[in-house]
Amino acid sequence: MSFGVAPALMVSRVVLRDFDKLGWLVASVYLICGALRLARFNCIAASGAPGAGKDFKGFPIPAAAGLVASITLFMLWLNNDSIEHGLTKWVLPPLLVFLSWMMFSGFRYPSFKAINWRTTRSVPKFITIVVTISLTVMFYQWMPAVIFITYLLYGFLRPFLSRQIKEGIEEEIEDDDEPPTQAAGGK
Q: Which of 68, 109, 152, 172 is deepest in the core (most CB within 10 A)?
């Protein structure tokens, strides 16, 4: 529940306190949608439906929490540790409502569970990961927001991408129906 409670509480205490009842309503909607999103995920995962582990249906709540936290960090950095000045305080309430809707949307997001270091393109992936981590450490004020926004937008663009591009990004491992062979002469 920390992915639902922490972002809702953070935004309600930092930004939504100026909006009184509307602020509590927005934070509550995010929290309730987050709880329902987790319930849906648990039901799908427990059902053992084919393909249940490959994709997420709807925006995952950990990514939503990361997006809220990273946007808050970016806005604090942008406004010299104060969100109360300017128009930036109007960004988070609509973002929470939008993310609440996205958690129940039909957009599919890759879980990236199938990616491992034994894939055919491990050197380019490794370099990409190292560069991304380095940039995130160097520019911690805004780089996490870029990463989470990119993941959010990928769900919108994914249906329009060719299968070849999707596989290049996600590189899903084909499910083998055959069990692994064992060495002969075993007990």
A: 68
